[in-house]
């Protein structure tokens, strides 16, 4: 909407909106001024709201100067330290520290302590100051459900560096040993009423990663707990110092009443708090993950990698089984995957490392053979090689199209076995969703 020219609007009101029907000049001017103020306020509301609506979810602007604590991200006074925008009372109650201002009535709050409890829509947790003397601690965060519409939490590891997963030392004449597990530093999510088993323990380098947690307030699933357990650096001085910055966003499922917002009502209600006519679920819908997905990428292009990819050095973590999913819009027929790195274990050396090379045949179960693989449904390489389970280096230097009839996803599985001289570095893919599934 174009900017208003104040004098032009005033002249319009004064000359045409209020006809001259016996009103004194003074009364006409008073009425014109009142309506002028109303029209200007309405226009500003429409302009601001429409601008907010047209932004993508990753382009939301800074908080208003009248913010009283909306839980959105903010920067402290040094313009580099991140926090969340809360009232001073909320910040103190949640054990945070004020590091700046975000609006006249709110403070930028850094949650860089342990044993924090919060119920804000967005929360950013930062590791407390750590040293060798203070390591060996346990740090917990409790995120309480913001409202009954919340159905998922997205946990973004903006910074995540813990001690790497480890296995036992190799022994002469023994080719197999237990897989790489989180034994020193451990991150876990719990209090999920039986759903916690589906969420892996994490350690190592996972900056830039994320995962989703399903919640259901209707069955008294009112909170999620994140725990860090750190190894003592005095007895193990070679371990890297632990650091983290984790953003937790509570996502609301779509409210059908939001479908009926349109026109000027849409523009006004979009800038107001949640009402029967406006729900933050409208904005959250973009990020809601399909059922069963630990990771979800709604963008049409990007990259994904194994946990503790560690810039190609790995190793990936043992005993994992999870799905990474991608948004399937009506125009999408599949997804193209290109591996920057792909280096996994295998159980048979046939130079193809596909399907039966990646999973043990039931007839030979009980043997110490690897069953690590990445499952890519209905996969076909650009040179015509078809398969579904990829292990070894079978996906390296390949362009792979996955064109399943249903959801777009890949499934990673790792066992609890390491074979000497068989690397388990992991994988990193770039992806693009396709509306033309002929790669040739």
How would you summarize the topology of this molecule?
Elements: H1 6-17, H2 25-54, E1 73-75, E2 82-86, H3 88-93, E3 97-101, E4 107-110, E5 116-118, E6 122-126, E7 138-144, E8 150-161, E9 176-177, E10 186-190, E11 210-214, E12 223-229, E13 243-252, H4 263-269, H5 281-284, E14 295-297, E15 301-305, E16 321-326, E17 334-343, E18 373-381, E19 386-390, E20 399-402, E21 408-413, E22 418-419, E23 426-434
Parallel strand pairs: 5-7, 14-16
Antiparallel strand pairs: 1-2, 2-4, 3-4, 6-13, 7-12, 8-11, 8-13, 9-22, 10-12, 15-23, 16-21, 17-20, 17-23, 18-19, 18-20, 18-21
Helix pairs in contact: 1-2, 2-4
Describe this structure in words.
The protein is globular, with a radius of gyration of 27 Å. Helix 1 (6-17) crosses helix 2 and helix 2 packs across helix 4. It has three domains: 6-54; 73-281, Sandwich (Jelly Rolls); 303-434, Jelly Rolls (Sandwich). The longest helix has 30 residues, at 25-54. With 440 residues, the chain is of the alpha+beta class. The protein is built from five helices and 23 strands. The chain has helices at 6-17, 25-54, 88-93, 263-269, 281-284; strands spanning 73-75, 82-86, 97-101, 107-110, 116-118, 122-126, 138-144, 150-161, 176-177, 186-190, 210-214, 223-229, 243-252, 295-297, 301-305, 321-326, 334-343, 373-381, 386-390, 399-402, 408-413, 418-419, 426-434. Mean pLDDT is 78; it is low at 1-23, 40-67 and 256-278. A hairpin with a 6-residue loop joins strand 1 and strand 2 (82-86).
